[in-house]
Amino acid sequence: SKILSGIWVLIPFCSLPLFFIEKGLVGLQHITEAGREYLLRLTKCYHFLGHRALLTDEPYLSSAVAIEPTQYYIIHKQKIIEVLQQQPFFYRHLAMELAYELKKAELQRILVTSNQILARVAQAIIYLRELYPEHTWTRQEISNFIDSTPTTVIKALAELENRGLIRQIGRRIEILNRDELLLIDEKEVFT
């Protein structure tokens, strides 16, 4: 299946199949009961969405929206069960994927104020720009979105501008090199 950017892939509290992203970029977000929106991560090609919900037999807790035109495969639960029974090596791959995501989630709480902030700001400005192109985002709004502080976001934006990846014109942020922004490693040290 193919979808255009801005279209929802996962709907929270629904129990749907597993998605495999073949091409494109998808933002996984969570909206709290108070209506506050958080970007959890950007999912690039060759990754799954919905596997936690599928394995726990629970509905999705987060939403996913295509940030750019995306091509994906839908894999229904019954087919996954058949594959897992016939080809147990797939369990290992799925377990490795879940273990990797758990590791990132555990480290995120520690690293969010230092190492991951540059990647999180880069991902957030791409996400926000694609979904809400007419809105001029304040540093406070960006910091709320990634659960950081305005001062940290200002420093990260200055670093991204120094690298020639963005340009700041007043409150407006112009993305100069989207591909390089997406390549910023979450382990990259930023102080």
Structure, explained:
The protein is of the alpha+beta class and 191 residues long. It has seven helices and ten strands. It has helices at residues 51-56, 77-86, 89-111, 117-131, 139-146, 150-162, 178-183; strands at residues 2-3, 8-10, 18-23, 26-31, 37-43, 47-49, 63-66, 70-75, 166-169, 172-175. It has a four-stranded antiparallel beta sheet. It has a four-stranded antiparallel beta sheet with strand order 2-7-4-5. It has a two-stranded antiparallel ribbon with strand order 9-10. α4 packs across α5 (139-146) and α4 (117-131) packs across α6. The mean pLDDT is 80.
Characteristic terms for this protein:
alpha+beta; four-stranded antiparallel beta sheet; 191 residues; 7 helices; 24% strand
Short structural summary:
This protein is an alpha+beta fold and 191 residues long.
Radius of gyration, whole Å: 17 Å
* Biggest sheet features: 4 strands, antiparallel
Fraction of residues in helix:
40-55%
SSE ordering: EEEEEEHEEHHHHHEEH
Query: How far apart are the first and last residues' alpha carbons, in Å?
Result: 42 Å
